[in-house]
Design a protein that fits this description.
Elements: H1 2-31, E1 34-40, E2 43-49, H2 54-60, E3 70-71, E4 83-88, E5 91-97, E6 100-106, H3 111-117, E7 127-129, E8 141-145, E9 147-158, E10 162-171, E11 175-179, E12 184-195, E13 198-211, E14 216-223, E15 225-228, E16 231-246, H4 250-253, E17 275-277, E18 288-293, E19 301-307, E20 316-320, H5 324-330, E21 333-340
Parallel strand pairs: 1-4, 5-8, 10-14, 16-20, 17-19
Antiparallel strand pairs: 1-2, 3-4, 5-6, 7-8, 9-12, 11-14, 12-13, 15-16, 16-21, 17-20, 18-19, 18-21
């Protein structure tokens, strides 16, 4: 009887030990459960897991990582209670550089992060659309504008000025060049701005004169009065011309007394002393003139352009005299013809 009681007591002790062991095991098991937060593209999911590592947890949750996906911890990291696992999946974008388009992927949404992810570095002047600090949506286009500044240096001629000096000792209408003009030279620096290889702007940033231009100096006559035996005569122009002489002889006019228009000028007036023949393209008929000798002989004086002649073209003038001897004595000489007001 005592033996039976002892066996019963031992059995009770074993059951008690087993119960305590089971209770301890369950407590340990419950103690290893962990609260984990999983964020996938900013969407959060909270789970309770008994997995040991991040990789085990993702398998239990049927989460498959893309080969280019981002995860903030290594897959073999042991899980800890209240751990936050962040996963970002690649998103498609179109990258535009000039006329070229590239299909790319990145886990980021901010432009500067996307470019950094793609190992694209911008120079100081480069910029993007949208701007670097902006966020863009998947599938959108990011344009990169490559900016280049080029400084070009060239030489350019400087036009010379034309200077007029008035001289009241020269007849009005007379001009003399007393100094020839010469172009100068300057150096110009131009800044050209290119965007993706296309010229969009150019500005002169510096100019330097290398050779100063030399002005052309012209002396211009302003004298418009002529001293004569009849006093001062005003004129508007003076022309140096070749003068010849003619009379009513057949040798001069090709007509004899009795011929039609004998002794009649081209203006229909009577040929007489003081009438001259001119080229109407140079001096219009009816113009009052004064003919001055340039050889020291007596001036022909006041006259009027009323006649023409077949040989009188350009700066030529034919003076009428009454006699053949006067014509012969005059011959051919240079004269100054004043066109009177």
């Amino acid at each position: 009887m005592e033996e039976f009681t002892a066996k019963k007591a031992n059995h009770f002790k074993m059951l008690t030990v087993l119960a305590i062991t089971a209770s301890l095991s369950l407590g340990v098991y419950m103690h290893t459960a962990k609260d984990i937060t999983i964020s996938i593209d900013d969407e959060q999911k909270k789970v309770v897991t008994y997995a040991d590592t991040v990789e085990q947890l993702l398998k239990l949750e049927d989460i498959i990582l893309d080969k280019d996906a981002y995860i903030n911890v290594p897959l073999d990291t042991r899980l800890e209670n209240n751990m936050n696992i962040i996963i970002k999946t690649p998103k498609p974008y179109t990258l535009a550089i000039g006329d070229k388009r590239y299909e790319v992927e990145s886990v980021h949404v901010k432009v500067q992060d996307i470019l950094k992810d793609l190992n694209i570095e911008l120079e100081d002047l480069d910029y993007t659309y949208p701007s670097l600090d902006e966020e863009t949506s998947p599938g959108s286009e990011i344009e990169i504008v490559k900016v280049e500044e080029v400084i070009e240096e060239l030489e350019e001629s400087i036009p010379y000025e034309k200077m007029i000096k008035k001289n009241d000792r020269l007849d009005i209408g007379v001009e003399n060049t007393i100094q020839e003009g010469k172009e100068g030279l300057k150096s110009i620096k131009i800044k050209k701005v290119f965007e993706n290889g296309k010229l969009i702007a150019e500005n002169i940033i510096e100019e330097e004169t290398i050779i100063e231009p030399i002005p052309k100096i012209i002396e211009k006559g302003t004298r418009n009065t002529l001293a004569s035996s009849r006093g001062n005569i005003r004129y508007r122009k003076a022309i140096t011309m070749t003068a010849t002489a003619y009379d009513l002889s057949y040798q001069s006019t090709g007509k004899r007394p009795g011929d039609r228009y004998y002794g009649i000028t081209a203006s229909g007036t009577k040929a007489r002393s003081g009438v001259v023949a001119v080229d109407p393209n140079v001096i219009p008929l009816g113009t009052r003139l004064y003919v001055e000798s340039l050889d020291g002989t007596k001036d022909y004086g006041l006259c009027i352009a009323e006649d023409t002649g077949g040989a009188i073209k350009g700066n030529k003038i034919d003076l009428f005299f009454n006699t053949a001897s006067e014509v012969k004595n005059f011959g051919r000489r240079k004269v100054k013809v004043y066109i009177l007001d």
